[in-house]
Design a protein that fits this description.
Strand content: over 45%
Number of strands: 7
Shape: elongated
Distance between the termini: 48 Å
Order of helices and strands: HHEEEEEEE
Helix content: 10-25%
Structural class: alpha+beta
Number of helices: 2
Number of domains: 1
Radius of gyration: 16 Å
C-alpha cells in the first residue's frame, strides 16, 4: 500500500465511527469539565500525517477537533451547549488488515490539554 493511501485511510479512520468512542474519552478531560459532548468531527489534511510503516505508527499536526459540549450543568435550566474548534496534534498506532488492503487504528492520543476557553484567566 502506498504511503499516501495509508495517510488518507488514517484521515478517514480518525473521523469515523471506529474511533468515535476514543474521541469521546479524550473529550472527558476538558477544562472546564463538560456534561457530555456531541457531533465530534476531525478536520485534517492527509499531508499533515507522517507514517512510519515498519513501526506501524503515525503522527499528525494541524488537525482541528470540532465538537459541541454541554457546559454549566446537565439540565436544561442550569446548562447550555457550546461549539468548539481546537487545534490538536498527536500520534498513534495502526495495523494492516484485510490482507494489507486496509488499516485499523489500534490507539491514538493528542498532545494538547483541552482548554475550552484558553484566553480566560
Amino acid at each position: 500500500m502506498e504511503i499516501d493511501v495509508i495517510r488518507q485511510k488514517l484521515v478517514d479512520k480518525l473521523n469515523s465511527t471506529e474511533t468515535y468512542d476514543e474521541w469521546i474519552d479524550i473529550l472527558q478531560d476538558t477544562n472546564p469539565a463538560n456534561y457530555g459532548v456531541e457531533d465530534v468531527e476531525i478536520s485534517i489534511d492527509y499531508k499533515d500525517i507522517w507514517v512510519a510503516v515498519r513501526e506501524n505508527t503515525f503522527t499528525f499536526k494541524n488537525a482541528e477537533l470540532i465538537f459541541s459540549a454541554r457546559l454549566g450543568g446537565s439540565s436544561e435550566e442550569s446548562g447550555y451547549d457550546s461549539n468548539f474548534r481546537i487545534a490538536i496534534s498527536g500520534n498513534g498506532q495502526f495495523e494492516f488488515i484485510s490482507k494489507s488492503q486496509d488499516i485499523k487504528i489500534i490507539d491514538f492520543s493528542i498532545n494538547e490539554h483541552l482548554e475550552l476557553y484558553p484566553d480566560r484567566e
